[in-house]
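As described in the Methods, two query proteins were run sequentially through the folding procedure within a single session, without resetting any intermediate state between them. The first query and its resulting structure tokens are shown here.
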Amino acid sequence: MASKQMVHMNQGQGERSYVLGNAQQNRMKLLIEGAIIDLYSRTSTLLPEMMVIADLGCSFGPNSLSLVLVAVEAIHGYCLQFQQAPPELCVFLNDLPDNDFNTVVKSLVTLRRINDPVVVTGVAPGSFYERLFTSSSVHLVCSSSSLHWLSKVSEVLRRNQIPAYYINDHARREKLPMVLEAYAQQLRKDFRHFLELRAKELVTGGQMVVSIIGRHSDGIAPFHIWDILAQVLSIMASEGVIDKAKFDSFYVPVYGPSKDDLREIIQEEGSFSIKEFLVHDFLIDLDSALVTPSWIANQIRAVHEQIVVQHFGDVMDEFVRITERHWSLDTSLMQEEHVGLAMLTLSVTKA
């Protein structure tokens, strides 16, 4: 995660924890394997004796090692294929300091048991909107489903006390373009800054593979990517479960960009060239039979519980009850309202 608000995933590995889908892991896997091949092809005949891999926004649990394991295996496979001595590897897992790093450190034992190549592991707590590594020291950066988290909410909204989500339908439709433009501006600032930071940390020819929850359409989106959360909280405010004034001052530091948004920022910043850019429906990988009201509630809880509790107090049991009630009426609501959501997966090379 990126924002300095308490936005880490729920701790643990149960039904309240978030798990990356297999299809998305496979797409990341293909791009990471391609990045390793490209990285080696850009070096001289003397291959590097040491390589550094970093996963930014690693979270914890089943997904925390998935990307770096792919990278380690790809490097090992490449060296076997071309009968090269594998380099020593240094693997860093990054997330905000409030992340459950106890779980992360325990999972790192899996990597340290790999003897060929030698793998040294570590954690790098901090926001990825700050410097994390020394200059020209990292060969591969990975990040999965994290960069839609912003460093902060737009000051324009806070300063003018403009709610991110209006309970009244007419007001919400009227104000939505302005609200989303404020979010889009923050995304542009943050993503450009992210690229500038990584450009300093990556070696020349270094690779970066990231996935971001975004949208298909260009221009201003017709929805928040956290609409379901906002809808349920608005019902809770209407029913008096949470204070309406608190609801009006609640902002989630998340924005879903389009492919063109990211391409434009990357080209303007200038430190990276785009190799591959994949766009997939956000819901296409899900088994529709599994998308039950209970599943929806637990997924939202896994991602947003910490920030909701921080702002409203311990209201999650009531949140789950209302979520299940809302979507038990029509489970197709999720597909209808979020047809524009997309998973953006891209691979870039430092110039």
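Immediately afterward, the second query was submitted; its sequence and tokens are:
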Amino acid sequence: MSTNSADIPTPYTASVPRPAPDRAALRARIPGWGVDLDPADRPSGTVERIDPAAADRGMPPRQADDPGRERSIEHAFLTPVYGTAQPLHGLSGHIRRWAYARFSEGRVAHWLLLVAGDRVDAVGAHVRSLASAHPDNPITETGVLSETRRRPIRSRFGRGRIDQRHTWLDPLLVAGPWVLAGWLVLRGARRVLRRR
């Protein structure tokens, strides 16, 4: 049973210019446009085979819709299959949901909000670690101890390593949150002691 391609829903809602530009106009306007239209011109053309049975299957079976799952505003619905292992949570989840609900994936605000949500989640993980019985250990978990055993000078200089540009920033990013947390704890302890 063959299905019409117009019957298969597409998740993209952006409009396509109609009528489509003429091939000759595109070839004149864009250098190199359409170089791979002829299968004989494609390196992979000899191994490309389209299975007609697979082409008629259409969309794969859909997972049950999850109204709490984030979805780009460019898409009419969720993709047929999506991950559920790491559901969004807390303040970082609200920031990420807002990025998906409010801004297109083509906007910088969308991606900056996702980065901000990631940073909020990282800070939350550090705070939870400090409150647990086994807090993170920045000395052993960053691998800084291995620097002294694995030719630290020879591996750093004269090799053209790109990370040399931000080496000065690494201690601030790794130790900075710990120093700030320690300072806040000391400040809070002083206030409590002064009140008593």
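The mean pLDDT is 78. We note this only descriptively and draw no conclusion about the first query from it.
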